[in-house]
Amino acid sequence: MATPEGAPADEVAGPDRPVLADELAGRLDKMELQLAEFHRRSAHRESVIDRLHEENQRLQGGIGRLILEPVVTDLIRLYDQLQREVSRLEADGQDARLVWSFGEDVTQILDRCGVEVFSAEPGDRFDRDRHRALAVVACDDESRHNTVAEVAADGFLERDTGRIRRPVQVRVHQYSSPSQ
Fold it and tell me: Which residues are paired to 131 by β-bridges?
């Protein structure tokens, strides 16, 4: 490329050329700084949006649990009543399958509400976090001390939070030496 005087551009020497290059470099540096600041602020906005979205999801879940709370409480009560009726019918030698099937339906409904039914077995170690002792059953076998003697009612656990809504209600063995 030639200059207006006809000389090649690289041969033109003048005092303005280094000043122009310095000015362009300075402007590019400013643009680079502005672009970096723009990216930093964009990343911050994205993190705020993500945090607000997570908080919104937690609040929505809490509202759902709050709305379902009375329903779940009533379903637990119904489950207990059905289990007692099944036990009564079986003790009387009657067929309890129909009532038992209603109890299974309630279990499925609770599961859809995020609540699991859990239990214990006789002989399990008593766990204060998962069991509630209703009564003490004396035993003369020291190895059975503080173990579940009998389950009176199942427990209920919120699947999402891990919170125990109601511990398993049990009767617990307590060792008493034969000399006492």
Answer: 168
Distance in angstroms (rounded) separating the CA atoms of residues 91 and 93: 5
Please, which pLDDT band fits residue 178 given cuts at 50, 70 and 90?
A: confident
Distance between CA atoms of residues 172 and 144, nearest Å: 9
pLDDT per residue as tens digits for the range 21-48: 889 999 999 999 999 999 999 999 999 9
- Spell out the domain ranges in the chain: 116-180
Instruction: In whole angstroms, give the CA distance from residue 30 to residue 171.
Output: 77
In degrees and rounded to multiples of 5, residue 131 shows phi and psi of: -125, 150
CATH number corresponding to 116-180: 2.30.22.10
Q: Which two tokens stand for residue 88?
A: 């009564």
**For the chain, what is the total number of helices (H) and then of strands (E)?**
2, 6
- Closest by alpha carbon to 106, among 88, 130, 80, 131? 80
User: For the segment 41-76, what is each residue's pLDDT rounded down to a tens digit?
Assistant: 999 999 999 999 998 888 777 777 788 889 999 999
